[in-house]
């Protein structure tokens, strides 16, 4: 089948991919018509290998070479639409140097630290999106740029694809009379995974609760004896079956835990272009209302 749609999902972690997979599911786009262009080593967790084109890592900091690579991808296919995740002009501004040949462009927008990202934008750069999908509240300047460069826009609440988990795993996670099951979820990096583990252990000690700790991560690390790794993906399918969920404040996990706020512990981490601390503050404010 002809690949008519390109999703430009250039980022190293799971967040961009998870959001893109949810968008495809929410909008009921035929995944067989899509190519996923990504530098992340985790793309295979969300999409079949034949749908993935890899952005070479050596292009990560060379805006002209990255733009040239994308241009060749466009010239090798007859795309009818290109969906651009998070960064409207590319993660290092590379899309300013691409000729999209009248292909319809779509922007998938979440919060950005616009005061930093705008430094990548050249004064004469122009891009026009046929439609922008707003996934969360943007800063005023980011929103202004987005609306000025979009024919249409709409807010969209993502639906994450359901996933059945084995009965044995449900049984394993079911509450025991004398202990609770806590799930720590974080993909990378290792130091943040360990920070969440320590936070969970400190909280359990403070609450004087006997806890069985489970960890869902893509990071290969040696775990403390009291932490049990769960090799199941996606982790959000496990949320109904555990007593506590400990995560960072990335976009997707904050969306996926909305129905579980009473048992969700969120810890923000610094990011270059994202603001997990702002998302954490908004969550706290909403929980008080």
Could you walk me through the main structural features you see in this protein, from its secondary elements to its overall organization?
The chain has 289 residues and is an alpha/beta fold. It folds into two domains: 5-155, 3-Layer(aba) Sandwich (Rossmann fold), CATH 3.40.50; 167-288, Rossmann fold, CATH 3.40.50.2000. 29% of the residues lie in helices and 20% in strands. It is built from eight helices and twelve strands. Strands 3-2-1-4-5-6-7 form a seven-stranded parallel β-sheet. Strands 10-9-8-11-12 form a five-stranded parallel β-sheet, with helices on one face. The chain is globular and about 65 Å long. The N and C termini lie far apart (50 Å). The mean pLDDT is 94.
């Amino acid at each position: 089948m002809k690949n008519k749609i390109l999703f430009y999902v250039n980022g190293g972690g799971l967040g961009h991919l998870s959001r893109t997979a949810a968008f495809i599911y929410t909008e009921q786009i035929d995944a067989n018509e899509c190519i996923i262009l990504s530098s992340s080593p985790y793309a295979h967790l969300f999409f079949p290998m034949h749908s993935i084109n890899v952005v070479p890592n050596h292009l990560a900091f060379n805006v002209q070479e990255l733009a040239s690579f994308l241009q060749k991808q466009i010239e090798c296919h007859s795309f009818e639409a290109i969906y651009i995740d998070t960064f409207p002009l590319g993660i290092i501004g590379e899309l300013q140097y691409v000729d999209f040949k009248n292909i319809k462009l779509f922007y998938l927008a979440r919060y950005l630290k616009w005061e930093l990202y705008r430094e990548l934008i050249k004064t004469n750069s122009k891009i026009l999106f046929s439609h922008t999908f707003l996934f969360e509240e943007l800063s005023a300047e980011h929103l202004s740029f987005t609306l000025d460069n979009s024919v249409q826009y709409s807010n969209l609440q993502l639906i994450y694809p359901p996933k059945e988990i084995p009965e044995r795993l449900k049984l394993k996670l079911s509450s025991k009379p004398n202990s609770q099951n806590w799930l720590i979820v974080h993909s990378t990096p290792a130091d943040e995974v360990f920070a969440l583990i320590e936070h969970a252990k400190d909280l359990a000690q403070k609450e004087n609760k006997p806890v069985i700790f489970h960890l869902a991560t893509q990071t290969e690390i040696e775990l403390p004896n009291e932490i049990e790794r769960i090799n199941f993906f996606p982790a959000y399918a496990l949320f109904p079956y555990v007593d506590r969920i400990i995560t960072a404040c990335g976009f997707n996990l904050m969306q996926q835990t909305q129905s579980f706020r009473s048992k969700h512990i969120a810890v923000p981490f610094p990011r270059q272009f994202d603001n997990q601390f702002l998302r954490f503050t908004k969550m706290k404010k909403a929980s008080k209302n």
